[in-house]
Amino acid sequence: MARIVVDVMPKPEILDPQGKAILGAFPRLGFNQFSEVRQGKRFELTVDGEVTEDTLAAAREAAETLLSNPVIEDVVNVAVVEDGQ
């Protein structure tokens, strides 16, 4: 079995209250190196068998039409991952 990972992030102009909350918690936990946090979504699609170009194209279409809201989110990655990643 193979896996395709889809990463979705809010568009840059969209406010990210969850990212701001995480950023606010960082200093309390000793993480002072970071100046911004954006929280997104990750989807893992399992494929029985080999991932073909058609399968990858279907994953991209699903990402654009179902897994993301194109008004406020961008699909930033659709990629095949190896086991252990």
TrEMBL record:
The keyword Transcription regulation does not apply. InterPro entries: PurS, PurS-like_sf. Part of the phosphoribosylformylglycinamidine synthase complex involved in the purines biosynthetic pathway. Catalyzes the ATP-dependent conversion of formylglycinamide ribonucleotide (FGAR) and glutamine to yield formylglycinamidine ribonucleotide (FGAM) and glutamate. The FGAM synthase complex is composed of three subunits. PurQ produces an ammonia molecule by converting glutamine to glutamate. PurL transfers the ammonia molecule to FGAR to form FGAM in an ATP-dependent manner. GO terms for biological process: 'de novo' IMP biosynthetic process. Keywords: ATP-binding, Cytoplasm, Ligase, Nucleotide-binding, Purine biosynthesis. Part of the FGAM synthase complex composed of 1 PurL, 1 PurQ and 2 PurS subunits. Belongs to the PurS family. This is Phosphoribosylformylglycinamidine synthase subunit PurS. Transmembrane segments: none annotated. It catalyses: N(2)-formyl-N(1)-(5-phospho-beta-D-ribosyl)glycinamide + L-glutamine + ATP + H2O = 2-formamido-N(1)-(5-O-phospho-beta-D-ribosyl)acetamidine + L-glutamate + ADP + phosphate + H(+). PANTHER family: PHOSPHORIBOSYLFORMYLGLYCINAMIDINE SYNTHASE SUBUNIT PURS (PTHR34696). It is an enzyme of class 6 (ligase). Coiled coil: none annotated. Its EC number is 6.3.5.3. NCBIfam families: phosphoribosylformylglycinamidine synthase subunit PurS (TIGR00302), PRK05974.1 (NF004630). Pathway: Purine metabolism; IMP biosynthesis via de novo pathway; 5-amino-1-(5-phospho-D-ribosyl)imidazole from N(2)-formyl-N(1)-(5-phospho-D-ribosyl)glycinamide: step 1/2. It comes from Pseudoglutamicibacter cumminsii. GO terms for cellular component: cytoplasm. GO terms for molecular function: ATP binding; phosphoribosylformylglycinamidine synthase activity. It is found in: Cytoplasm.
